[in-house]
Design a protein that fits this description.
By secondary structure, the protein is α/β, with parallel strands linked by helices. The chain has 25 helices and eight strands. It has a four-stranded parallel β-sheet. Strands 6-5-7-8 form a four-stranded parallel β-sheet, sandwiched between helices. Helix 5 runs antiparallel to helix 7. The relative contact order is 0.10.
Length: about 400
C-alpha cells in the first residue's frame, strides 16, 4: 500500500511505525473472513481492511468524523486478523495509533466521555476497584441485571503456599483480578508449588496498562508500565526470579510489549526490554514442566468433558496455541471441539461496557459454540473472558489453572 503521511505525523515515531505497517497491507481481504464485527455487521468499514483505509486517510490529512471514530471504536482489537494476514500487518498497533490520533481530533462527548474517563481513572486502581467490588457484592441482590453480571459472587482463594523452592517466579496481581477472582493466582501458586516453583507477587505492581492503552491514554499506559517495572526490577536485577508470570492473557500481551512501549524512554528502555523478555504466560511455565506435572498427578482417571475458550489475547496476541489444551489433557480432561474457536467472545477489556449490543451478540455465539457438545464446564485463560461469559452461561466458567488445581487436590 502506498502512503503519503501528513506533516503532523510523518516524522514522529508513531508516524514511522504506522507507515511501515500500512505499506505491508496488500488489500487481499483475508482479514475480513475472520473479523468478528465484520461477520456481525457486514460493513467493510467494520472490518480490518476498511479500518486500515480509514486510518490511512486520517494519517494522510483527512479530517476524521464521529463516524470514523465509531468504526474504530467497534474494533475489538482481538487481532484475529493478524493471525490470518499473509503479509504480517501489525494491525493491533496500527489501530492504537489511529484511535489515538482520531481521539485528539474528535473530542468525546456526553455519556461516552464520562464512561471512558471513569474506566481510565477507576478500574486500574486495584484498591479502589476492590472496595467498590466489595460494596457491590453487599447489595448484589438489588442491582439491575446489567450491573449485577459485572459483580461476580466471591469464591474463596484458598491457601497460598509459602515460598520454599529455589526456583521462583513473580506473578502480576493486576487491577481487577484480585477483587473479582483471587482464586486464580492462588490456584496458580499451588500448581507451581506442586511442580517445584514458588510464585510470589511484588508489592507496588498493579494494572498492566492495557486498559489505558486501548482507551487512547497512551501516557497513562506508559506510567503503569514504569510502576510495574520499578516494583519488579530489584528482584530481577538480583537474579532472584526466572520469569514474570501472567495468569491473565490480556495482561500478558501488554507486558510483553513493554519493550516497545518504552523504547524511547532512556531511563526505562533497557529495563522494559528485559521485563518483556522474562514475561511468560502461566501455561508456558506449566507446560515446560509437563513430565513433572504428569508425575505429580499420577493415575487419577478421567476428569470428564471440558470446553476451552482460548482468549484472543492468548491465541492471536501472544500466538500461544495448543499449550493450555495439552496441559488440560494431561490433567485428565476430555476437551470437546469448539466451533469458530478463533472468534472473540465479546469481552475485549472494556468493550462489553462501551459496545454492549455487539458484545452480547458475540457472547451468545461463543456460548452456543462452547456448549454444543455437552461439556459441563468451560475453561478460559483471561479474567475478562471469564467474567463476561460466566453470567450468561448455563455451566460454570473458570480459569483453566483452577481446574488443574482441583485435579491435584483430588
Amino acid at each position: 500500500m502506498q502512503t503519503q503521511l501528513a506533516d503532523f505525523i510523518r516524522d514522529t515515531r508513531e508516524g514511522q511505525e504506522a507507515d511501515t505497517i500500512l505499506r505491508k497491507c496488500v488489500h487481499c481481504g483475508f482479514c475480513t473472513a475472520t473479523c468478528p464485527t465484520y461477520q456481525l455487521l457486514g460493513d467493510e468499514l467494520d472490518g480490518p481492511r476498511g479500518r486500515i483505509y480509514l486510518i490511512k486517510q486520517v494519517l494522510e490529512g483527512a479530517e476524521p468524523t464521529a463516524r470514523t471514530q465509531l468504526h474504530l471504536d467497534r474494533c475489538l482489537t482481538c487481532r484475529s486478523c493478524e493471525s490470518t494476514c499473509p503479509s504480517g500487518v501489525e494491525y493491533g498497533r496500527l489501530v492504537d495509533i489511529g484511535r489515538h490520533v482520531v481521539s485528539q481530533r474528535v473530542p468525546r462527548k456526553g455519556r461516552d466521555r464520562l464512561m471512558r474517563w471513569a474506566l481510565k481513572e477507576f478500574v486500574p486502581r486495584a484498591g479502589v476497584f476492590g472496595a467498590a467490588m466489595k460494596l457491590g457484592r453487599m447489595v448484589r441482590g438489588v442491582l439491575p441485571a446489567a450491573l449485577k453480571e459485572k459483580v461476580p459472587e466471591a469464591r474463596p482463594a484458598g491457601a497460598w503456599p509459602a515460598p520454599r523452592h529455589t526456583r521462583r517466579v513473580i506473578a502480576l496481581a493486576g487491577c481487577v483480578q484480585p477483587a473479582m477472582a483471587p482464586s486464580i493466582n492462588a490456584a496458580a501458586a499451588r500448581v507451581l508449588d506442586a511442580i517445584g516453583i514458588s510464585m510470589v507477587e511484588q508489592p507496588g505492581a498493579g494494572c498492566c496498562g492495557a486498559l489505558r492503552q486501548h482507551l487512547d491514554e497512551h501516557e497513562g499506559a506508559r506510567a503503569d508500565a514504569r510502576r510495574n517495572i520499578d516494583a519488579w526490577w530489584p528482584a530481577v536485577a538480583r537474579g532472584e526470579v526466572e520469569a514474570i508470570v501472567m495468569t491473565a492473557s490480556g495482561c500478558g500481551v501488554q507486558v510483553r510489549d513493554y519493550g516497545h512501549l518504552l523504547a524511547d524512554d532512556p531511563a526505562y528502555a533497557e529495563k522494559a526490554a528485559r521485563i518483556s523478555a522474562l514475561t511468560r504466560d502461566i501455561g508456558e511455565i506449566v507446560a515446560a514442566e509437563h513430565d513433572v506435572l504428569v508425575q505429580v498427578l499420577g493415575k487419577r482417571g478421567s476428569a470428564g468433558k471440558l470446553a476451552f475458550h482460548s482468549p484472543c489475547t492468548l491465541q492471536h496476541g501472544q500466538k500461544i496455541r495448543g499449550v493450555v489444551e495439552s496441559i488440560l489433557t494431561a490433567a485428565g480432561y476430555e476437551l470437546v471441539p469448539v466451533r469458530d474457536s478463533h472468534l472473540c467472545c465479546g469481552s475485549a477489556g472494556t468493550y462489553s461496557l462501551l459496545q454492549p449490543e455487539l458484545s452480547h451478540r458475540l457472547r451468545e455465539n461463543k456460548l452456543a459454540a462452547l456448549t454444543e457438545h455437552g461439556a459441563p464446564a468451560i475453561a478460559s485463560a483471561n479474567i475478562g473472558c471469564i467474567t463476561h461469559l460466566d453470567p450468561a452461561a448455563s455451566v460454570p466458567v473458570r480459569h483453566w489453572i483452577e481446574y488443574v488445581d482441583e485435579r491435584l487436590a483430588s
